[in-house]
Write a structure and sequence with these properties.
Blueprint lengths: L1 H14 L2 E3 L2 E3 L1 H40 L5 H10 L23 H12 L1 H8 L6 H25 L7 H5 L3 H4 L2 H6 L3 H36 L5 H7 L6 H17 L1
Antiparallel strand pairs: 1-2
Helix pairs in contact: 2-6, 2-10, 3-4, 3-10, 4-10, 5-10, 10-12
């Protein structure tokens, strides 16, 4: 009975092994291909996406860091046009509702305070957390993941002879990439760092950009001078101040009429 069982087992094993041109094609080859495929579809794809996204994130953060001082001029112009002292706002124009918040001393003071702190806040929130070594690692993962995916497709996309699998799965050109590919798991942590930094940097920059835009209305309502030209020089949104003044004048005329 035992001998018969052993014979069946041997027969079953032989059905999974075929000798072709001196090579044995077994389920092991299929398992090796499966492992390479998992690396292709999971690690190589995910780590590749993360490493490219990390690079994009820190490049955008650096661009904003380079602009950290651009809000100094809007701050200086605002302070000058409201009397030179943010704690003693002088507004010589008439505050009217124009579809924006009315210009008030508290509003002007708050906006000036935000603009004054912009360079320090952007410096803090947009500072670079990635060392040169980390950048080299990120660039390396971008290259490694792309190389692995390309090599996998070259070796297996057009394969149509089963026994070739056993040859291709051991190909050094793909096997030698695996350790570096697996080492790219650090991109998971780096991605979290880069995303958090990008969010904080964006929030700091957007707060300053909003304050810059709000300062235009304050200047348009409170400035004793026609500051259209100076706004165009010191702010990125200066050209709209003329439209704000025109809208204010129309509201004043309507208010007088009614």
């Amino acid at each position: 009975m035992k001998t018969k069982t052993k014979s069946l087992a041997n027969t079953h094993q032989e059905s999974k092994m075929t000798k072709i041109d001196g090579k044995i094609v077994t389920d092991i080859c299929a398992e090796d291909l499966k492992l390479l495929g998992v690396l292709f579809g999971n690690q190589a794809r995910n780590f590749g996406q993360k490493s490219n996204r990390i690079k994009s994130f820190y490049e955008k953060v650096r661009q904003k860091y380079a602009k950290r001082s651009v809000f100094n001029n809007p701050y200086n112009t605002l302070v000058n046009e409201i009397g030179g002292d943010i704690n003693n706002v002088v507004c010589t124009g008439t505050s009217v509702y124009t579809g924006f918040e009315p210009a008030t001393p508290d509003n002007a003071r708050d906006i000036a305070t935000i603009l004054e702190a912009c360079e320090a806040n952007i410096t803090l929130e947009c500072s670079d957390e990635f060392t040169a070594a980390m950048e080299t690692e990120i660039e390396g993962c971008i290259d490694t993941t792309a190389a692995y995916r390309q090599k996998f497709l070259e070796l297996f996309q057009q394969i149509n002879v089963a026994e070739q699998i056993c040859v291709q799965v051991t190909e050094p050109s793909i096997q030698n990439l695996i350790p570096d590919l697996q080492a790219c798991n650090t991109m998971i942590a780096y991605d979290t760092i880069a995303l958090n930094r990008k969010i904080r940097c964006n929030n700091a920059f957007l707060e300053c950009r909003k304050a810059e835009r709000d300062s235009i209305q304050i200047i348009a309502e409170c400035s004793p001078n026609d500051c259209t030209s100076c706004l165009c020089e010191v702010t990125t949104v200066g050209p709209i101040v003329g439209r704000i003044r025109n809208r204010m004048n129309r509201f004043k005329e309507l208010k007088t009429f009614f």
